[in-house]
Amino acid sequence: MGDEVVRLDKVRRDYLVGDQITTALDSVDLVIERGEFVAIVGPSGSGKSTMMNLIGCLDRPSAGTVMIAGDATNSLTDNQLTSLRSKAIGFVFQQFQLLPNTTALENVMAPLLYQGISPKQAKKSATDMLVKLGLGERLNFDRNRLSGGQQQRVAIARALVTGPDIVLADEPTGALDSKTGAAVIDLLKELNKEGRTIILITHDLDIAASAPRRVFLRDGLIERDERGAA
Amino acid sequence: MRLLGTASLALNRIWATKIRSLLTMLGVVIGVAAIVALTSIVDGASQGINKSLATLGTNQLNVTSMFPDALSELDARALAELDEVSVMFVQSVNEGTIATGDTRVNARLVGVSSQYFEAVKPDIAIGSYLSSSSYAASAKDVVFGGDAAGDLGLTKDMLGKTVKLNGQDFRLVGILDDQVGFGTSGRVYVTLDAARKLFSQYPYVSSIVVQAKTPEQVDALQFSADALLRERYGLTAEAETRYTITNQANLIAAVGSITDTLGLLLTGIAAISLIVGGIGIMNIMLVSVRERTREIGVRRAIGAKQSNILTQFLIEAIVLSLAGGVIGLILGEIAAFALAIIGDWVFAIRLDTVMLALGFSLLVGVVFGVWPARTAAKLEPIDALRFE
Ligand SMILES: Nc1ncnc2c1ncn2[C@@H]1O[C@H](COP(=O)(O)OP(=O)(O)OP(=O)(O)O)[C@@H](O)[C@H]1O
Ligand SMILES: [Mg+2]
């Protein structure tokens, strides 16, 4: 057994809306090891975001076990789940989701501050990370003064700054033109080369094809799990 | 995250939405401003009343009667003999006219015995009190009260000149600094002898004032004065309508209880207006939680605990309310200052008013901020992130 950062065992997630039960994930088994670059692919409604929420410690399974960086999430309290999330996961969202009325620097500092790190230390780490991603000139810009590609890079800096075990990116190119999107994917690949575990959620088969491992979801089930060049 | 960091998030947000924040505070601003201004009015008014009561002295008893011929100078002399009495004076008040040149107005012509000015010590604007030589010579000298002087438009250069009281010539020796305004008819003071020549009502007087040697003796004096007068007129306990003995201390206490009641009333109004202000804040905070559901979801995703979210929103509500309180306090004190100038009373910023205003606005922020803040903290991260 290698160094597993994600382990899903017979994971099911049901949503109850009114008296209607939707099974978004059904008995899913998945293991992701440290340093992997995995694309999770599937049509709309196939359960990708549901899987991301479970891996991201934002949600708990209805049945089965989710192990993140060695901890099972099922029995954790909200506070414990938050701590695990804060330590193990960095999120990159489709709509960037930078905080309002907040500069690039403050956005990247926020996860560190929530960890209880001193503002001085947080500022230093956040600045370093933004400089590394080529945003050294934009530290004090808020989201209204950043292009989409720049916002997504700020969001990636925010996801990376705590040194998480896993970077979870849900459709990170969905709101970008293809050129900027490709640059973001290149950045994620580069980060993967540095040893980061990247989980990329997409319904774009071209983007998925460039990933070394591809997990295909359909109707809440894993349809295929491919490795190597597509 | 440390509290300071969370506080700066809240301040950031308030600053980013300045206009809306100001409007949100408005209820608390108005509530606090109103209470500060009203408190100062009650204060000023009771200050004024107490001041005019205090000039009469707190250890004094005032014997008066509804009947013009019920109290005589002989009663006064007998009362002056009582052990507890240090000073006694009498007043004989009649309606009359005062005139100078072509101006003639109604006034109260007050005959006072020689100890009056000594005992009451009213502030004097120009000239002097009625002197002992005025009394010795039964001189037709007059001291004008401020209102009477105002009615006739008397000035400094009239001092020593002649004015007419009920058509008779009197010499103006002084003008008091005791203007009340409010259209009260003015008072002028002459010797008791001079008053008798004007009104021929010997030996009756309108009121007898006896002053106890110490404030502690006032009650004892009231008892013996009552007993003495009753004995002089052979009155039973029931038939005491002939005269009334008023205790200044009781009067001050009565005024005190009236202003206390007023204060209570104001507190009630303040409480209601602050509750209304608080509901305003709660309302906007709830709207704000809804609008910022996504933001809350993102914050939770990047590591905010429920308690971080709770604190952020609670501090925001408290800061809004407290800032409203501070603005209200400043506006209220400005209004109080203006009112003090108009009402001619002493303006003072009272520490207890300041503490009360700030304390209550803090409380309002906490009480009405808790629910929205809890709503925000209890949001499920996945629902918050999906929220459109
Ligand atoms: N919070 C929820 N409440 C109820 N049903 C939900 C909820 N979240 C997801 N679902 C349902 O679960 C199924 C899977 O949804 P999910 O969001 O995981 O799909 P997805 O693969 O991310 O789709 P997309 O590509 O459109 O984002 C869908 O049928 C969806 O309607
Ligand atoms: Mg999705």
TrEMBL record, chain A:
<dbReference type="Pfam" id="PF00005">
    <property type="entry name" value="ABC_tran"/>
</dbReference>
<feature type="domain" description="ABC transporter">
    <location>
        <begin position="6"/>
        <end position="230"/>
    </location>
</feature>
<dbReference type="GO" id="GO:0098796">
    <property type="term" value="C:membrane protein complex"/>
</dbReference>
<dbReference type="InterPro" id="IPR003439">
    <property type="entry name" value="ABC_transporter-like_ATP-bd"/>
</dbReference>
<protein>
    <submittedName>
        <fullName>Unannotated protein</fullName>
    </submittedName>
</protein>
<dbReference type="GO" id="GO:0016887">
    <property type="term" value="F:ATP hydrolysis activity"/>
</dbReference>
<comment type="similarity">
    <text>Belongs to the ABC transporter superfamily.</text>
</comment>
<keyword id="KW-0813">Transport</keyword>
<dbReference type="InterPro" id="IPR027417">
    <property type="entry name" value="P-loop_NTPase"/>
</dbReference>
<keyword id="KW-0547">Nucleotide-binding</keyword>
<keyword id="KW-0067">ATP-binding</keyword>
<dbReference type="GO" id="GO:0022857">
    <property type="term" value="F:transmembrane transporter activity"/>
</dbReference>
<dbReference type="InterPro" id="IPR003593">
    <property type="entry name" value="AAA+_ATPase"/>
</dbReference>
<dbReference type="GO" id="GO:0005524">
    <property type="term" value="F:ATP binding"/>
</dbReference>
<dbReference type="InterPro" id="IPR017871">
    <property type="entry name" value="ABC_transporter-like_CS"/>
</dbReference>
<dbReference type="InterPro" id="IPR017911">
    <property type="entry name" value="MacB-like_ATP-bd"/>
</dbReference>
From TrEMBL, chain B:
<protein>
    <submittedName>
        <fullName>Unannotated protein</fullName>
    </submittedName>
</protein>
<feature type="domain" description="ABC3 transporter permease C-terminal">
    <location>
        <begin position="269"/>
        <end position="381"/>
    </location>
</feature>
<dbReference type="InterPro" id="IPR003838">
    <property type="entry name" value="ABC3_permease_C"/>
</dbReference>
<feature type="transmembrane region" description="Helical">
    <location>
        <begin position="309"/>
        <end position="342"/>
    </location>
</feature>
<feature type="domain" description="MacB-like periplasmic core">
    <location>
        <begin position="21"/>
        <end position="226"/>
    </location>
</feature>
<dbReference type="InterPro" id="IPR025857">
    <property type="entry name" value="MacB_PCD"/>
</dbReference>
<dbReference type="Pfam" id="PF12704">
    <property type="entry name" value="MacB_PCD"/>
</dbReference>
<keyword id="KW-0812">Transmembrane</keyword>
<keyword id="KW-0472">Membrane</keyword>
<dbReference type="GO" id="GO:0005886">
    <property type="term" value="C:plasma membrane"/>
</dbReference>
<dbReference type="GO" id="GO:0022857">
    <property type="term" value="F:transmembrane transporter activity"/>
</dbReference>
<keyword id="KW-1133">Transmembrane helix</keyword>
<comment type="similarity">
    <text>Belongs to the ABC-4 integral membrane protein family.</text>
</comment>
<feature type="transmembrane region" description="Helical">
    <location>
        <begin position="262"/>
        <end position="289"/>
    </location>
</feature>
<feature type="transmembrane region" description="Helical">
    <location>
        <begin position="21"/>
        <end position="42"/>
    </location>
</feature>
<keyword id="KW-1003">Cell membrane</keyword>
<dbReference type="InterPro" id="IPR050250">
    <property type="entry name" value="Macrolide_Exporter_MacB"/>
</dbReference>
<feature type="transmembrane region" description="Helical">
    <location>
        <begin position="354"/>
        <end position="373"/>
    </location>
</feature>
<dbReference type="Pfam" id="PF02687">
    <property type="entry name" value="FtsX"/>
</dbReference>
